[in-house]
Every structure is written in C-alpha cells, then in structure tokens.
Amino acid sequence: DIQMTQSPSSLSASVGDRVTISCRASQSINNYLNWYQQKPGKAPKLLIYGASSLQRGVPSRFSGSGSGTDFTLTISSLQPEDSATYYCQQSYSVPLTFGGGTKAEIK
Amino acid sequence: EVQLVESGGDLVQPGGSLRLSCAASGFTFTSYWMHWVRQAPGKGLVWVARINNDGTRISYADSVKGRFTISRDNAKNTLYLQMNSLRAEDTAVYYCARDWSPAIDQWGQGTLVTVSS
Questions:
Q1: Chain B neighbours among A 41-100 (CB < 8 Å)?
Q2: pLDDT tens for residues B99-108?
Q3: What is the pLDDT of residues B74-95, one digit of tens each?
Q4: A49 and B103 Cβ atoms separated by less than 8 Å
Q5: Using an 8 Å Cβ cutoff, are A15 and A105 in contact?
Q6: N or C: which end of chain A has fewer CB within 10 A?
Q7: pLDDT band at A61, cuts 50/70/90?
Q8: Is-contact A11 A18, C-beta < 8 A?
C-alpha cells in the first residue's frame, strides 16, 4: 500500500498569510494526488485534483504543485472560511490512501 | 444538482450485520464508479471499497475484505455496503462518494455506524 504523510499535522496562521501544506507519498504516484478540505461535521470537498488542477468553484487562492512523491497545497492568502482540515489522497493505485490530515486554524 | 444520500447507519453489537444504502440523483449513475469512505470519530479519512459502473470490478481495503460487500442497483440508482462480522473498530461515519477520475468529486453527508455492546 502507498503511505501518504502530511505535514504539519496542525497550523495556526493569520488572515492574509500564505500557508503551505506538504504531502509525501511512499513511492512515486506521478501526479495522481488530490486535495480535500473538510469542515467539522461536514463531508470532504474536493479542492485540487491531478496535483495541480483547481476544481470548479474553488477559490483561486488555493493551488497545488508537485509530482512523483512530493506535493504541496498552498493557500496564498488565508481567509477565515479556510479554517478546516485538509487531506491529501493518492489515486495512483488501490487501496486509495489519504494523508493523516492538517488542521488549519486562524489566529 | 448532484445528491448522494446515505442511510442505514445504526448502533449494532459486535459480530452483527448492517446494510448501508446510498441513493444517488442529479447525475447519470450508470456512468460513474462509486466509493465508500469512512471516518472514525475524531480521525482521518479511510477508503473502504470501490465499484465500477456495472458492478463487475470491485476493490476493498484489506481491513474489510471478506466482511464487507459493495454492490449497486443501477435500476434504482442506489449503492450499497453490506457489512458483516462488525467490530468496534468499524465504528465510523460512512460516506458514499462519486469517482471522477482521478479524484472523488461528490460526497454524501454520511451515516453513522456504531459497533458496541
């Protein structure tokens, strides 16, 4: 199974800050990497697919990069509504696997 | 509007069985592969199973293989998860989700399964 490791596990930043979340795969997954946002009590929401493609309707302050084993989710200017947990997920092979999550808080 | 509505979650004793359903609407159900993903209380997301359009290609997580069965009724636009030999560690919110390769693009609201005596 492909292991997905996210860092940090939590972060606290101010409105307007640039935030980056890292995700590392235990083997190359090409660009089969997706990012989701989940707010408490809600279902996950797709933000980025194929490592860098922005899902329709997602604000452009979200961006993704990387390929192979190392990936990054960037929020260019953190907003209050971005307080959530973010998960990476590989879709290169089954079993599909998720990272452990990064909880983002607003200072 | 795409809708995925799960039902069937309940409190069940260890060793018991439960069947979850997911009613799909707002899209052509037969065109999409589907998934079940679960989330234990306060924990992260864990993929459970996947089924292709016509139900002929199925994959499971090792943790549920041999105990859970994913299936679909395309005439009823409904996805199922039959869960047998339930364990305490199966306690979670179970999400039905739509595959939009390479990602999962639509999720239901989830249904809670609690395994406890």
A1: 42-46, 49-50, 55, 87, 89, 91, 94-100
A2: 999 999 999 9
A3: 999 999 999 999 999 999 999 9
A4: yes
A5: no
A6: C
A7: very high
A8: no
Q: How far is A17 from chain B (nearest CA, A)?
A: 26
How buried is residue B116: exposed, middle or buried, by Cβ count under 10 Å (0-12/13-18/19+)? exposed
- Smallest Cα distance from B45 to chain A, Å: 6
Nearest CA in chain B to A96: B47
pLDDT bin (cut points 50, 70, 90) of residue A48 is: very high
Mean pLDDT of chain A: 98
Radius of gyration from C-alpha coordinates of chain A: 13
> Beta strands of A43-106 (E only): which ranges?
45-49, 53-54, 62-67, 70-75, 84-90, 97-98, 102-106
Q: Quick one: CA dihedral A71, A76, A77, A82, positive or negative?
A: negative
Closest-approach residue (CA) in chain B for A85:
B44
Mean pLDDT for B19-28 is: 98
| Amino acid in the structure at residue B104 | I
